[in-house]
Amino acid sequence: MRFWVAGATGYTGSAFVREARAAGHDVIAHVRPGSASEERARGAFEPLGAVVDTTAWMVDPLRDRLRAERVDAVLCLIGTTRKRGLAEGMKGTEMYDKVDYGLTAMLVSAAAASGTRPCFVYLSAMGVREDARSPYMRARWKAETAVRNSGLPFVIARPGFISGSDREERRPAERVGAVVADGLLAMAGVLGARQLRDTYRSMDATTLARALLSAATDPNARHQVLEADSLRMRAGATG
Q1: 27-59 pLDDT per residue, tens
Q2: Less CB within 10 Å around the terminal CB: N or C of the chain?
Q3: CB proximity list for 23: less than 8 A, separation 6 or greater
Q4: 8 Å CB contact between 71 and 116
Q5: Distance (Å, rounded) from C-alpha 5 to C-alpha 87?
Q6: CA torsion angle for 98, 205, 169, 75 (degrees, to 10)?
């Protein structure tokens, strides 16, 4: 298959590029134009045989690129952090609406307009719902709604904490939260609540990437929302 990956320089995106190339798929790794990560991305991805793409984040250029490449699936693995938002002068609802929802909606529109009907794989989050109190969760719900209403075949993934010792981006609060939660869930597993443990414990990027690759290449996964336990099963994770 041929994949176009938005958010390719992120923790999950980088892992997906590696896993997809190792499985023999064609990969176009998108990097935001002018990003400081472009040189590093080229050094990491091009030796694997992936193509680095710097198409502008605008509907028409994205549409034209997707049409020209005739990709089988578009993966939207983007997201923002509070720290990055503040650095760019955004905060609260504006930050999540502009990136987590806004860029996703833009990419959905471009994919739908490309005329090639790629499968749209969207990385969402556990607990997303319409009436969520968190601005982040509400933005993710709006993004999911845009994906569902696009007319494209889709897969929506809702993992829990995405964390691991191999994560280069410093997110200490998230890492501590994952470690604490995993410890409590491990105890719950010992006490018999194995389903609870397997549903909520954290997942590293390689495990998630394998699950996304499995879903993206499986016609039976189309139009599904995959929660954390289903993602873990698809990745073949045990323990």
Answers
A1: 999 999 888 889 999 999 999 999 999 999 999
A2: C
A3: 213
A4: yes
A5: 25
A6: -30
The span from the CA of 218 to the CA of 153, in Å, is 12
| Predicted pLDDT at 8 | 96
- The alpha carbon of residue 10 and the mean position of all alpha carbons in its chain are separated, in whole angstroms, by 9
What are the structure tokens assigned to 35, written together? 């990003």
- Enumerate residues 6+ apart whose C-beta is below 8 A from 133: none
Tokens of 42: 């080229």
Q: Assess contact for 3 and 70: CB atoms under 8 A.
A: no
Q: Cα–chain-centroid distance for residue 115?
A: 23
Q: Using an 8 Å Cβ cutoff, are 221 and 215 in contact?
A: yes
Q: For the segment 174-211, what is each residue's pLDDT rounded down to a tens digit? A: 444 434 444 444 444 445 545 555 566 778 999 999 99
